[in-house]
């Protein structure tokens, strides 16, 4: 009888720890923290995370970081692929305490910062994409995961961000993002932050898209009105 109660106690303890561990995991999604005109935006999916900070009125880009992350239930560690402030702080990794409150994430930064989970919104181009080559596809060399020079597009729950960077030197070239829609072959970006030129905020850009295997064929006109054909490859 005592042995049976002991086994039941062990099973209950294991189950409790398992539930706690599950609750401590970060669910994929977009999380946003708002304080007056300041926005913090997290995108989390498949072991990758981006954190971007910007102001809305007047529009002002502040910073962005991103990379592959791990958690142990209490601490969040990110091995950075890019850091817009690298020349200032030299950081290639960040670590901070975190907790999960319902669907929200609380990060212990200078002060506790609560990120609210955005309502899920599935669309055709959701995911992480790396720039591969200029189109059309005629068998030319492509930039791949092994190339330190990367341009990443991260699209999720109606939010998008592109980032151009170099993983070896941590040189940062630029970023922009906001909301997007992709439906029936038409992809639209609504810009809410732009590192190179805050005056670009508010612009809406429309393109055509076609998915071929793991490639996204992105065509239309660039911001200068010139013809554009890009091929992006799905990262994961």
Describe this structure in words.
It is a single chain. The chain contains two helices and 16 strands. The chain has two domains: 90 residues, Lipocalin; 108 residues, Uncharacterised protein PF14869 family, DUF4488 (Lipocalin), CATH 2.40.128.490. It starts with a helix and ends with a strand. The strands form two sheets. An eight-stranded antiparallel beta barrel has the order 1-2-3-4-5-6-7-8. The protein has an eight-stranded antiparallel barrel with strand order 9-10-11-12-13-14-15-16. The protein has 236 residues and is mainly beta. The N terminus is likely disordered. This is DUF4488 domain-containing protein. Keywords: Signal.
Q: Cα-atom Rg, whole angstroms?
A: 20 Å
Give the total of domains.
2
Largest sheet: 8 strands, antiparallel, barrel
Instruction: Give the CATH topology of the largest domain.
Output: Lipocalin
Regions with little confidence, pLDDT below 50 for 5+ residues: 1-23
End-to-end CA span = 51 Å
Q: List the total number of helices.
A: 2
Gist?
Residues 1-23 form the signal peptide. This protein has helices at residues 2-23, 86-89, and strands spanning 29-35, 38-45, 48-56, 59-71, 75-83, 93-101, 104-108, 112-117, 127-134, 149-156, 159-166, 172-183, 186-194, 204-212, 215-221, 227-234.
Annotation keywords:
signal, 236 residues, Lipocalin, eight-stranded antiparallel beta barrel, mainly beta, eight-stranded antiparallel β-barrel, 16 strands, DUF4488 domain-containing protein, globular
């Amino acid at each position: 009888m005592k042995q049976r109660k002991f086994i039941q106690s062990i099973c209950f303890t294991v189950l409790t720890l398992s539930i706690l561990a599950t609750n401590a995991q970060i669910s994929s999604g977009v999380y946003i923290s708002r304080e007056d005109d300041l926005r913090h935006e997290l995108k989390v999916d498949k072991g990758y995370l981006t954190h971007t900070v910007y102001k809305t009125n007047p529009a002002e880009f502040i910073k962005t970081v991103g990379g592959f992350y791990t958690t142990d239930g209490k601490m969040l560690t990110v091995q950075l692929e890019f850091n817009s402030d690298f020349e200032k702080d030299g950081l290639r990794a960040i670590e901070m305490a975190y907790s999960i409150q319902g669907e929200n994430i609380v990060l212990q930064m200078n002060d506790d910062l609560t990120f609210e989970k955005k309502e899920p919104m599935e669309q055709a181009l959701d995911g992480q994409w790396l720039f591969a080559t200029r189109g059309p596809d005629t068998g030319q060399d492509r930039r791949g995961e092994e190339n330190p020079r990367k341009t990443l597009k991260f699209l999720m729950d109606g939010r998008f961000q592109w980032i151009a960077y170099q993983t070896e030197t941590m040189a940062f070239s630029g970023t922009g993002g906001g909301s997007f829609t992709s439906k029936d072959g038409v992809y639209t970006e609504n810009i809410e932050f732009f590192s190179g030129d805050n005056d670009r905020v508010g612009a809406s850009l429309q393109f055509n898209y076609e998915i071929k295997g793991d490639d996204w064929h992105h065509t239309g006109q660039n911001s200068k009105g010139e013809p554009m054909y890009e091929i992006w490859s799905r990262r994961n």
